[in-house]
Amino acid sequence: MPLKNNKRKNKLIICITGPAGSGKTTLSNYLKEKGFCVILVDELGHKALDMEKEQIKKVFGNDVIDEYNKVNRKALRKKLRTEKDWEKLEKITHPAIYKLLLKEIEKSQKRVCIIDAAILFTIGIDKLCDVIIKIESPTELLKERLKKRDMDDEFIYEVLKKQKNEYKGRFFDYTIYNQGALNDFLFASYSLIKKILKDFHLEIS
User: Fold this and answer.
1) Does the pLDDT at position 6 exceed 90?
2) How many angstroms separate the Cα of 161 from the Cα of each of 19, 86, 88, 147, 179?
3) Mapping DSSP to helix (H, G, I), strand (E, B) and coil, where does residue 184 land?
4) What is the DSSP secondary structure assignment for residue 195, as one 8-state letter?
5) Residue 71 pLDDT greater than 60, yes or no
6) pLDDT digit string (tens) for 74-89?
7) CA 198, CA 201: separation in Å to the nearest integer?
8) What CA–CA distances, in Å, run from 53 to 45, 82, 122, 162?
9) In the chain, which ranges are E strands?
């Protein structure tokens, strides 16, 4: 099977997406232990916040910057209560995230790169990918996991609503259902990754 993104130096780019709390990062960490190049877009998002902190301060106020002159994500989170608030932040951070992602892909010496991204279509990450895998979990399980991350109910509602809109009407090459049994989820996911590599005539490296 030919690669879609010839500009990426013949690298196979697999994107793992799905709502917050679905198990993306658990799977990504597992694949990293198996030797894969794994890029966490959430981490790039944190870097983008500090790269664009002056613009963020201008838009959201001085109180989102902490004593160490870093963006206080918890304080910023409290400012994100409407769709317009999210749009303001995304307009600032998404271009920076995309640039950082390209650098990480180019830097990798591996033939296969796995991107962990809850938001991919809005940023344009989907255009870089050869294969997109979506992870789904029951909504109540998502909420339960997100509460453990110190998120309040209102913020969880906004995040899940936004991500649901992100995926609406979109095409995914594969869907994995994570019902909460970790070993089953990892086994099914790893089996799928091996199948994809076989389809592209690649080996795990």
Assistant:
1) no
2) 9, 12, 17, 16, 20
3) helix
4) H
5) yes
6) 999 999 888 899 999 9
7) 5
8) 12, 20, 21, 23
9) 12-17, 37-40, 112-116, 131-136, 174-177
Tokens in use for 57? Answer: 């301060």
Mean pLDDT, residues 8-30 taken together: 90
CA 139 to chain centroid: 18
Q: Which residue is listed with tokens 């997406």?
A: 17
91-129 residue pLDDT tens: 999 999 999 999 999 999 999 999 999 999 999 999 999
For 26-45, letters b (16+ CB in 10 Å) and e give bbbebbeeeebbbbbbeebb
CB 132 within 8 A of CB 175: no
Those residues with Cβ within 8 angstroms of residue 14's Cβ, 6 or more apart along the chain or in another chain: 112, 113, 114, 115, 129, 130, 131, 132, 133, 193, 196
DSSP code at position 176? E
